[in-house]
Design a protein that fits this description.
This protein has two helices and six strands. The protein is globular and about 50 Å long. The chain folds into two domains: 1-32, no CATH class; 33-88. The protein is 19% helix and 28% strand. The chain starts with a helix and ends in a 12-residue tail after the last strand. A six-stranded antiparallel β-sheet has the order 1-6-2-3-4-5, with no helix packed on it. It is of the alpha+beta class.
Length: 98
């Protein structure tokens, strides 16, 4: 089967099924607001959005004693966390808004 021009160009740039180059991938994650646990750990006991390498999942949790846990699930340890981001501030609403 012949490779399409777009697929070849993507592969040559480091994208596609083989994955992006590590520098390009890191830049994309930074632009999206993700922080690598290798670069920085979050403050303790603040709610976070977590990216886990297990099954490519994301979830909510906190960092407690250097580990990521979910307080809503009896402090269940969240395995495989590679990236995190702080949650945004809640929206500001007026008195008459729902």
């Amino acid at each position: 089967m012949e490779e399409k021009k777009e697929e070849r160009e993507c592969r040559e740039r480091g994208g596609g099924r083989e994955g992006r180059g590590s520098q390009e991938n890191k830049r994309v994650l930074e632009l999206m607001g993700w922080i690598s646990v290798k670069d920085q750990m979050p403050k303790e006991d603040e709610w976070l959005y977590l990216g886990s390498s297990l099954f490519g999942t994301t979830t909510w949790g906190i960092c407690m004693d250097g580990e990521f846990v979910n307080p809503d699930q009896n402090y269940l340890k969240i395995e495989g966390v590679t990236h995190w981001m702080p949650l945004p501030e809640p929206p500001k609403t007026g008195e008459n808004e729902l």
